[in-house]
Amino acid sequence: MLRTNDMKTLFVTGGAGFIGSALIRLLIAESDWRIVNIDKLTYAGNLESLADLGGNPRHVFSHTDICDRTALDELFVAHRPAGVIHLAAESHVDRSIHGPGDFIETNIKGTYMLLEAARAHWSALDAEAKGAFRFHHVSTDEVFGSLGDSGLFLETSPYQPNSPYSASKAASDHLVRAWHHTYGLPTVMTNCSNNYGPCQFPEKLIPLMIHNAVSDKPLPIYGKGDNVRDWLYVDDHARALRLVFEQGRLGETYNIGGHNEKTNLEVVDTLCTLLDKLKPRRDGKSYREQKISVADRPGHDKRYAIDAGKIQRELGWTPQESFESGMRKTVQWYLDNSVWVAHVVSGEYRQWMDRNYGDRK
Ligand code: NAD
Ligand code: DAU
């Protein structure tokens, strides 16, 4: 029988968030990695998203801020990880517009602290462990700015971040690149398009619209609703992350996207049609009636679209979920998990966390 000490350990930062929790569920189900989940549990971090793991011993939670270098050093000494997948971030564009400070702190300074802690650990490894170590930085297509009506983001596209969020992610990407170039830290990086799926905080377009629709609230469409995003089901992103972490070429970046360009109006109409079937309104009308136009997001990027050819050619990754199947699963998940939504909206999950993880903090 495998003892804990024999297992290879992987650090996942931001593992209580939307994508991090999907990644951890995948790694626990389909790999042998022992995961140390490093998360500060901001408003967006929710351990209830990992409740299905049922206290699996291969998942260890550490309530840690990635800006705390001392705590990070202690974790590296205690667990001696074979790699890091770094997802912890402030992730919501609208919040970055209203208050950029936390984005600068976590996304830039936090990434710097993590890089330095990882470098100290990696530098002291023996040659074999040093050769096998990986630092995977998880980033966004928003660093490339906004597209016009045509064209796709490539790994070689110039960086033109437009929001405080994307600027902070671009800064963190540059730090990772420099730590590879200057210190030889073995890094890989991914830039992904818009994710959707279970356990996404209901401030982002898709879960917000589902939550508002069934709560009899308006569905606020920014501007004309003709901005375009390239949607990817979160489990497809998680599979891509595992592939790049385990098989990606060092120093390389990989774009990840869903081949699903949709205007925001198309997304909201798709959601309304699904909800009309799965949970019809009591008055028999369509949820589309709840759509309202509101003031546009300042600096709103017009269009994002990814060329995911490199990850497909080199690592054989393609998305498994279509937009239709992914949206149906997502809507059904939110309808079936109204308690999860109620908890994250009310903050009640923090009490849940204290009950279930109070002794692990
Ligand atoms: P999220 O907001 O759902 O989760 C972020 C997690 O990071 C939370 O659990 C939060 O508690 C944690 N965190 C925040 N600050 C921290 C800190 N200082 N120390 C430790 N933990 C901290 O975000 P997400 O949507 O899951 O995104 C994860 C990553 O993927 C981010 O780096 C984001 O930029 C990137 N990304 C997201 C998308 C998307 O569509 N959501 C697309 C491409 C890339
Ligand atoms: O492209 C990847 C990025 O996708 C990630 O890096 C970010 O972390 C993630 O939040 C997401 O950013 P967006 O700004 O594209 O996602 P959001 O869900 O906030 O908005 C999607 C689109 O919907 C965008 O054009 C703004 C619009 N929108 C959003 C909200 C919340 C509305 O029209 N109404 C809304 O209420």
Topology summary:
Elements: E1 9-13, H1 18-30, E2 34-39, E3 59-63, H2 69-79, E4 83-86, H3 93-98, H4 101-123, H5 127-132, E5 134-140, H6 164-183, E6 187-192, E7 195-196, H7 205-214, E8 219-222, E9 228-230, E10 232-233, H8 234-247, E11 253-256, E12 261-263, H9 264-278, E13 291-294, H10 309-315, H11 323-336, H12 338-346, H13 349-357
Parallel strand pairs: 1-2, 1-4, 2-3, 4-5, 5-6, 6-11, 7-10, 8-13
Antiparallel strand pairs: 9-12
This protein binds nicotinamide-adenine-dinucleotide (NAD) and 2'deoxy-thymidine-5'-diphospho-alpha-D-glucose.
Bound molecules: nicotinamide-adenine-dinucleotide, 2'deoxy-thymidine-5'-diphospho-alpha-D-glucose
User: Can you write the helix and strand succession as a string?
Assistant: EHEEHEHHHEHEEHEEEHEEHEHHHH
Give the number of DSSP strands. Answer: 13
Shape: globular
Query: The biggest beta sheet, please?
Result: 7 strands, parallel
Which stretches of 5+ consecutive residues score pLDDT under 50? 1-5
Helix fraction by DSSP (H/I, runs of at least 4): 40-55%
Residue share in β-strands: 15-25%
Q: How confident is the prediction overall: mean pLDDT?
A: 95
Rg (C-alpha, Å): 20 Å
